[in-house]
Every structure is written in structure tokens, then in C-alpha cells.
Amino acid sequence: MRFDEKFLSAVSDDEIQVNFTKAETRLLLNFIQYSNQILSRAQLLEAVSLGNEEKLDRSIDFLINRLRRKLKDDAKNPSFIATRYGEGYIWLAVQSKKQALPRNCHAVVGPVRGLNHISNYRSSAELFSLQFHKSFQNHFSDNLAVVLDPDCPGAGGQEEGGPEIGIELGFVLSGDLLDCVFRGYSFRTDNTIFAKRLTVSGTTSPDVEMIADEISSVLRTGLATDVKAQLPLAVGMIEAGKTFTGIKGHWSENDQELRTQVEKNPTDYRAKIMLATNIHTKYLQDSVQIFSSNADPRKDDEDEIEKLVTESLPHLQTEPTFLLPAVKLLFFIDRGYNDIAVKMAERLHKESTSLAASLPVVGQMRVFVGQNEEGQRAIDQALELCEPGSQYEIYLMVLKCEALAAVSDRGALDQILDQVCSRVPQIEVLMQILFTCSERPSKIAQQALVNMSPAQAKGMLMLTHYVYGRLLQDPEHRANAYRTPVSLFTRQFGPNIIPDEVRQVLQEGMKQDT
Fold it and tell me: Which of 123, 288, 419, 448 has fewest C-beta within 10 Å?
């Protein structure tokens, strides 16, 4: 049993909570104070009685029996309270000391529960725990410590620098088989990230590796879609990747994991939407590198996104966490789904209980269809909900930069551009090139242009084009979005630096405007 500090309640190995009355709490505290000492009925009665209460000697027997029932303690074979006939009662259980985990520990496998209730399978469970820990830690970067602690002190209230996540193992017999319930949890808040039950008896080392693979996959999915975090799926996946590497997540780290997941279970439609989202994230994170090279994987990637999303949509109608990114992807591939994608996004936003996830999607879609003011309002509302300095806040501020650039609001754009660059210096050059004033470019933008190759310039311009500019349906907004990079690169490299497809989009916009 795990008692709270004041002994007002306790939780058993099978996670059943019991609450104690004031008298029972006083009795427990007295037992703990005099552990392994025989206490007479009179001593116990004195401990639980208050000044004016009637002291009836036999009432302590009633209280002891009631406490035994709550503790599921067998009087004939006691673990907590033993009877010493003619003398009184004695408390048998030893209070375990709360251990402190290493400050540099990133993840913990533990606590391990249920070992006292699986008879001859205990040694198998202990061996599995060791093997699982060895395989599970292989999913983390070498610089992140993953420890096995069967007597883990539990989550909540840990000092800064303690573990981020934990995997609790709970063993239980299912006939002749040994099952384990895995619970992934946030170590600081004790929020459950996932729970999964698997049969583990008789597992050899390769089987343990397969189980560790599966648990790492459901942990990654659980972190990316954490309801309490309420992040857009793309941001959640980046944060989930960070859990395994200790650094900002990258699409390439999620790619193989998600593809393996989909291959093993073709009906895992959640994983399919996550894979499609990850393909989109590739262009958010690596557009400059992709378009600076001669490779152009867009058609194949768009084909795969379309297939993954259209296959999954019918099966996710009650799951807005996955529907919202799915409809955004349909808009992104720009293959005739735009109207239905916008309508679905607005409907899902009206029904959403996770505003932090729905506001960025509906805000960006409104900006794309020309409702810039309404889109900015949604993004601003999301900014009020986010934690300052978080990956989510940076994501929102970039969306706000795009919206402000589309309407050429120079004053507001300069202000938020400064905030983004000060918080994330590693993207300062890119942000300045894309959003600085085209007539009076910043010093950072000017210096970057001097050292930039034509291939890099093309990559940056295609980033603006592919993930943002081409999707703006208002011709004026589209022209505004391209103005800064087109002006800077044309002056530096000449008009031929502009790719034909960008030139075509701008010319079509001019015709529509005329």
C-alpha cells in the first residue's frame, strides 16, 4: 500500500484507492510511530479518542477490523496488523523510505508493481523488467539516462532536473500467462500518457525488443497527442521527438518510426495521419535544403499525403485531434479539396474542446482564403493560451508573421519579427530574409545576402512559395507575401533567380487583380 503523507488515504498495488476516517487515520499514525511494538487496547483507544469521547474498550476491536478490511489484511496471515491475544495489536509493515532519483535521469522504468501477487512468476517478471529496460533505453539518445527503479518513489513534486517521463510496470496473472500493464506517465505531473496491457510470460530477448519497440511507439504517439498539452499535432510530434533525443525534434527522426508503425498495422489510422503530418513537417523544417538541391520530391510526397488522409478520414470522424491536421493537409496539397477542408475546419473548431489545437489551424486557413483579420484574431487567441518561450509559441508567432506579411502591416510585423528572432536566434537569418522590409532590409538580411549562394536563395524563395505563398487565394495578399524575398534576391542575383513556377503564380495574381 502507498499511503499519502497524512495517512488520509492509500492506494493498493492494483490501483484501488481507500479513504480513512479521522479515527482510522489517528490509529494508523499511532501504529506507524510504534511499529513492531505491541500496543494494548487501552493505548490504542487513548490514541484515537478525543477528550470528551466515550472510551469503550471493545470499540477498538471494531475499528481494527474495519481498518483490516480497507487494507485487505488477513487476520490469520497479516501483512499489516497482527493480533497478540491477551496483549493487544502490533503493526508489522515496514515503512519504505522515499528514494531520490539521480538529477541527471531523463526517464525511469518503474515503479514495478504486483510482484507479491504472482506467486512463482515473480522471477520471470523481474527478469522481464531488466530486459525491457535494456531494450527500451536503446530508443533514447546516448546522452539521456534511462534508469530502472522498481521502487521508484513516484511522480509529482520532483525537483527541477529530475526525470521527464516514467514507464510503470504492473504485473498480473491471466490464467497461466503473465501479463504486464505498461503505464507511461509524466514524472512531474503524474498525468497518464498511455496505458497498454501485453502478455509477457515466456518472452525471449527478441520478444522483449519487440515489446520495447511497441511501447516506445505508443509513448511517442501519446506525447504527440496529449490531450492535456492541447498542442497542434505537428507541434506535439516535434515535442515528442525531443523526449527521445533531448533536442528539438526533427521530421527524419519520426519518419522511420511512423512508417514501421503503419506497416505493422495498416488500420492504425492515427499513425497514418501522423505520418502524413510528418511529411508536411519535412517542408517546414528542410525546404531550403530540399529546394537548394536538384531533387524535387513534392509530387510523390503529395500523392502519399493524399492517400494517407483520404484512407483515414472515414475512420476518424470522432477524433478531432487527427481530423484537424487531416483537413489542413488536404488544403496544403491543393488538389481540389480546399472548400470542403475550410468548411470542416470551421465545424471542428466550433465543436473543439482543445482551442489551443484548433485555433492555429482555423486561423491559418482563414488567412489562406483571404479572411486575414479573422485569421489573426484566432492566432492571437491561441497566443494567449500558450506558454511563453515554448515551441508552440514560436510556431504561432511564425503564423502571425505570415498573416501580417500578407496584408503588409509593417509596424506589427517588425515587432513580432524581433520577438521571434530574439527567442530563436538559429532561425534569425531565415526570418529576416523572408520578412524584413524590402525597401530597408535589416543589417542581418543584408549580411546574409552577401554570403548566400544562388541555390540557397532559390531554396528560401521556394520555402515561401510552397508552404505559404501559393496557398493565399487573395492576389494582393499573395503579392505582399512574395515581395520581400523576391525583391532581395532579384537585386542580389538578377531576375533569373526567380523560379518559373513562382513567376507564374505572381503573373496569374496580377491578371486576376487586373
Answer: 123
